[in-house]
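hiii, so i know i said id send this last week but things got crazy w the move. better late than never?? heres the sequnce for the chain we talked about at the cafe, plus the structure i predicted for it. fair warning i was half asleep when i ran it
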Amino acid sequence: MDVRKIEGKFGNVEISSYLCRITKTTFIMIYKFDKESLTYKNVSKHLALAVIGIIVLFTAITSIFMLKRVNDIRYISAETKSIIIKESTKENEFSPQKLKAYILELNIKFPHIVYAQARLETGNFKSEIFKTNHNLFGMKVATLRPTTNKGEENGHAYYEGWRESVVDYAFYQAQYLSDIKTEAEYLQYLKANYAEAPNYMTQLQIILAEKDF
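okay and structure toks below
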């Protein structure tokens, strides 16, 4: 038998607990100290249950508090915050490779044409509209379809990040180009409805010929 003694106070009553373990069975015996007789007396069943309940409740409250503290950003160390910020910034950094992967992830139709459009609209990702508005496709503010834009700046839609711009193009495609089946039909639609510059389609074809996707 393994017997462990735990002492404490419950109100004005001094409590001694004996945790007894016999093979695989564990049980608790709780006693109170009688100062007059200088002996320990077995406490009532109700008091024993009350003590156990208080211990369990205290443990639960402590656990909840500690879990909340762990998940509260106020208690995250400066070093950990720095790592989180760096990882978040790194994730949001733009690269042509990330754009290609995201276009495919969103299952956008004719991804090579869409990527070529992004290159053309942004001057190979160097235009001010792309840098300031995170706008990859020269999109204007949409009012008749779902959109991820945050408003208008410099005459174009602006986005929280470049990924939101790609999602907005996906919304555009789903709204207006869902019935188009072939690449030729897609290019014809762009020529009639998307292109603003007279040489837009010629420049787009030059980029497509590079097979950069």
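btw Confidence is low (pLDDT under 50) at residues 16-26. thought thatd interest u
miss u guys!!
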